[in-house]
Specification:
single chain; 482 residues; alpha+beta; Rossmann fold; DNA polymerase, domain 1; five-stranded mixed β-sheet; four-stranded mixed β-sheet; globular; disordered N terminus; binds 2',3'-dideoxycytidine 5'-triphosphate; binds magnesium ion
């Protein structure tokens, strides 16, 4: 930032102050850019007049400069205090004053701060688990789920994107003005936000929550192995609850669904971080007993810092030159022998070398994998001397919990792509692929990144390299809770 025709020291001080304020803004969750770009919405200056900033803007080849709000530093300070963007009222605006124009072209190094427009892609936002807009995002997720049950993908995605966007905001939305200029805020979404602001709840969401079909589908899909198609079939048969399905002995259930009903209570109760750590130890020990150098990484929600989940996802790779196609089978066989395996479905790899990545946004990948249910023994906290499943008087004590575990085996050279994909969130992954396709003419999936213009595969040894290939700032796993 320029401080008039001042000497070097002052300018240096200016840069330090600028860095400090930029850092402060970023820490508070604002998007503060160091350079002017298309996404900039607000320009903040300190010690520069309206005319000086305007002159500087003219030299920046930005076209119509009226699209920026030119504000005084007092606006930025007010935002920092409020923890949210405050209205750019008159008192904060830089305005033309009766003063003579600067004698020479101002040599503005850079106007102070530039708060940028929020990106429509969640891979260009930081979304931690601190959600300041839960009452809105919960409502959107109900709407999205209802549209998913109706197989209306467009409306479903509209609500998922809106939920994801509000999760990334560093403040609670309290007025319609707060969402002005934000992407992903369609009419349906705005109506619900408005109603929640005014009434405290949304009548449309309430209607869905009381809807017979929604309630039945919600129950059915909570069973492992039951999706929308099966739910539709059962609903048409007049079934409405999990108990009714269980009681109907004429139904043909898949092996997966049978396990889903058998361990229903355990599986609907969430997996805790402590349980994830305990299972992680079992997986690592078993895998390393066969391949000591294997890399076992927990992915999914737990890698994003969540402390509960519906399952535990693992990625397994062998850094050595040799792959072991039998590893997964060996692990599963051992668990069977140890009596730890309650269910498993092994899917063999369908990966074909040199095949282009999948263009589908929600495509399954081709890795060898296993969807399993493990028996996790839990230490009982009681005074009895029995600490295993022994007869306690008349009652049998269950001292284990059924836990859903996904194991995915990846070749080492695809590991970074698999890690990025399996870390999620689902919405973050969708937006990464959408961004790659629409903004970079590249195709990304869990195996590779392909540059369509150059017609080459881009190799990556780490997630950081994938972001770099895509021209994106790196987003940490805990900032991917979109
Ligand atoms: N994923 C993927 N391909 C699949 C399934 C999942 O790339 N066939 C990605 C998307 C998210 C991530 O893997 C983990 O999936 P989930 O376990 O469904 O999601 P989660 O974020 O771990 O959520 P939860 O806490 O409910 O397990
Ligand atoms: Mg998971």
């Amino acid at each position: 930032m320029k401080r008039g025709a001042n000497i070097l020291i002052k300018r240096k001080m200016g840069m330090t102050r600028r860095s400090f304020l930029m850092e402060l803004g970023r820490r508070k969750g604002f998007r503060v850019e160091s350079e002017l770009s298309d996404s900039v919405t607000h320009i903040v200056a300190e010690n520069n007049s309206y005319l000086e900033v305007l002159d500087w803007l003219k030299g920046q080849a930005v076209g119509d400069s009226s699209r920026f709000e030119l504000l005084d530093i007092s606006w930025f300070t007010a935002c920092m205090e409020a923890g949210r963007p405050v209205d750019s009222e008159m008192k904060y605006r830089l305005v033309e004053q009766c003063q003579s124009p600067p004698l020479s072209t101002p040599e503005l190094e850079m106007p102070a701060f530039i708060a940028t427009k929020v990106s429509q892609y969640s891979c260009q936002r930081k979304t931690t688990l601190d959600n300041y807009n839960k009452k809105f995002t919960d409502a959107f997720e109900v709407m999205a789920e209802n549209y998913e049950f109706k197989e209306n993908e467009i409306f479903c995605l509209e609500f998922l994107r809106a939920a994801s966007l509000l999760k990334s905001l560093p403040f609670s939305v309290t007025r319609m003005k707060d969402i002005q200029g934000l992407p992903c805020m369609g009419d349906q979404v705005r109506d619900i936000i408005e109603e929640i602001i005014e009434e405290g709840e949304s009548s449309r969401v309430k209607e869905v929550l009381n809807d017979e079909r929604y309630k039945a589908f919600k129950q059915f899909t909570s069973v492992f192995g039951v999706g929308v198609k099966t739910s539709e079939k059962w609903y048409r048969m007049g079934l409405r609850t999990v108990e009714e399905v269980k009681a109907d002995k004429t139904l043909k259930l898949s092996k997966m669904q049978k396990a889903g009903f058998l361990y229903y209570e355990d599986l609907v109760s969430c997996v805790s971080k402590a349980e994830a750590d305990a299972v992680s130890l079992i997986v690592k020990n078993t895998v390393c007993s066969f391949l000591p150098d294997a890399l076992v990484t927990i992915t999914g929600g737990f890698r994003r810092g969540k402390n509960i989940g519906h399952d535990i996802d693992f990625l397994i790779t062998n850094p050595g030159p040799r792959e072991d196609d039998e590893l997964l089978h060996k692990v599963i066989d051992l668990w069977k022998k140890q009596g730890l395996l309650l269910y498993c479905d092994i899917i063999e790899s369908t990966f074909v070398k040199e095949q282009l990545p999948s263009r589908k946004v929600d495509a399954m990948d081709h890795f060898q994998k296993c969807f399993a249910i493990l028996k996790l023994y839990q230490p009982r906290v009681d005074n009895s001397t029995c600490n295993t499943s022994k007869k306690l008087g008349m009652a049998e004590v269950k001292d284990w919990k059924a836990i859903r575990v996904d194991l995915v085996i990846t070749p080492f050279e695809q590991y970074a792509y698999a890690l990025l994909g399996w870390t999620g969130s689902r919405q973050f992954g969708r937006d990464l692929r959408r961004y790659a396709a629409h903004e970079r003419k590249m195709i990304l999936d869990n195996h590779a990144l392909y540059d369509r213009r150059k017609r080459i595969f881009l190799k990556s040894g780490s997630e950081e390299e994938i972001f770099a290939h895509l021209g994106l700032d790196y987003v940490q796993p805990w900032e991917r809770n979109a």
